[in-house]
Design goal:
Layout lengths: L1 E3 L18 H16 L3 H15 L7 H21 L6 H25 L1 H6 L3 H20 L8 H39 L2 H15 L3 H18 L6 E3 H19 L3 E7 L6 E3 L4 H12 L6 E10 L2 E9 L9 H18 L4 E6 L3 E9 L3 H4 L2
Helix pairs in contact: 1-9, 2-7, 3-4, 4-6, 6-7, 7-12, 8-9, 9-10, 10-11, 11-12
């Protein structure tokens, strides 16, 4: 665990978080970031969104949210079928009869599709494979459970029909999420790239140019890197190491403005190659600065932690609450809602963001499935 003021970094006697070089190179880096920002057109954003949408056309059958939706929809159809079926048996008997036939085949299909999920993502027409798996599983179970009965065609055909309906549902859901992904991306850009942060950072650099030119250069370089990261492809994944690096850059810039009131404690014990959505940690530390340390007269310590809990990666950012006479800021809730929406788009039901508040501390906790970068590339 490391506690201290965030430091600008480089080769000239500052701890490791920046880049060495001349002031001219720092100006070129900032100019390049501004050029990238100016060229971020709506068409470029939509192109990245469409690329992400094609990936989502076939759901990841290993995802908990996908499995729950399939189970819920199929069992809802079973209930409707049991209600519509007419007979002397009570309703619960008809439901149990249908369930005894459908549930084993459904669980077997989900297990096989989960194993084939990576292969399905690479296929051009994965729907045919999904339908074929459903047909073979239902036919095989029918032969296994009733080997002496005539081969029933209606059950495999019904399974194929249900598979097509479910694939059509996920396709419609993907179509519906595409505008949401666009709106979430644009809202995230608008929320993170705050004009007052840019102006304050530039003013801090200007104030340091004559007295401490090396620090002024590092402020500009870190600012350029932050803007370049914020303008990157929204569908491109990041890593924990990169997220920590960007958070350190941001905190180093804010430390020049806030001064000694800002102290940071780091406790990162998770693998550095853990895959994360881009710019997941920086908005949390930004909230901690603006709605915690900056609004408190005495300042305080921001605690950033990351660790593994089983197969889950847990990130937490804790900051002191503002003084008692300061009113809560709505921007904190807006940023957390933004992050929740992004997590839902990336992980569905497998990730969560929760906020825990005590009389003097506020903690934001993000839990996502752990996946190393090497496994994500395959």
């Amino acid at each position: 665990m490391i506690i201290g003021k965030p430091a600008l970094t480089g080769e000239r006697g500052f701890p490791a978080c920046g880049f060495g070089g001349s002031n001219r190179r720092g100006s070129r880096r900032l100019a390049g970031a501004c050029y990238d920002a100016g060229n971020l057109s709506l068409s470029a954003v939509m192109s990245a969104i469409l690329q992400k949408s094609r990936y989502l056309a076939i759901p990841d059958f290993r995802n908990l949210g996908v499995m729950l939706r399939i189970l819920l929809l199929v069992n809802l159809l079973l209930l409707v079928a049991a209600i519509l079926l007419r007979g002397s048996d009570p309703l619960f008997v008809r439901v149990l009869t249908l369930t005894a036939w459908v549930e084993p085949a459904l669980l077997l299909i989900l297990g096989i599709l989960a194993l084939l999920s990576e292969h399905l993502m690479r296929q051009r027409q994965p729907y045919l494979t999904v339908v074929l798996v459903c047909l073979l599983c239902v036919s095989g179970l029918d032969r296994l459970l009733t080997p002496h009965d005539p081969f029933p065609l209606e059950r495999p055909l019904l399974a194929m029909l249900m598979a097509l309906l479910l694939m059509h549902y996920f396709w419609l859901r993907q179509r519906a999420l595409s505008p949401a992904l666009s709106e979430a991306r644009l809202a995230a850009l608008q929320a993170r790239i705050r004009p007052h942060f840019l102006f304050n950072s530039l003013n801090a650099a200007i104030a340091l140019i004559r007295s401490k030119p090396d620090k002024a250069e590092m402020v500009l370089e870190n600012l350029a890197d932050l803007f370049r990261a914020q303008m990157a492809d929204p569908g491109k994944a990041s890593t924990l190491a990169r997220e920590v690096e960007l958070a350190r850059m941001y905190l180093a810039i804010e430390a020049e403005r806030v001064g000694e009131r800002l102290q940071v404690s780091w406790d990162v014990q998770a693998p550095a190659d853990a895959v994360l959505p881009a710019l997941l940690l920086q908005p949390l530390v930004e909230n901690a600065v603006h709605h915690g340390v900056e609004r408190s007269r005495a300042g305080g310590v921001i605690h950033v932690a990351a660790h593994l809990a089983g197969k889950q990666l847990v990130l937490s950012v804790t900051n002191p609450l503002s003084d008692g006479n300061a009113e809560p800021h709505k921007g904190n809730r807006m940023a957390l809602d933004n992050l929740r929406e992004r997590l839902a788009l990336f992980y569905d039901a497998e990730a969560q963001l929760e906020a825990v508040s005590t009389p003097d501390r506020y903690c934001a906790i993000i839990t996502v499935p752990y996946q190393p970068a090497a496994a994500a590339q395959h």
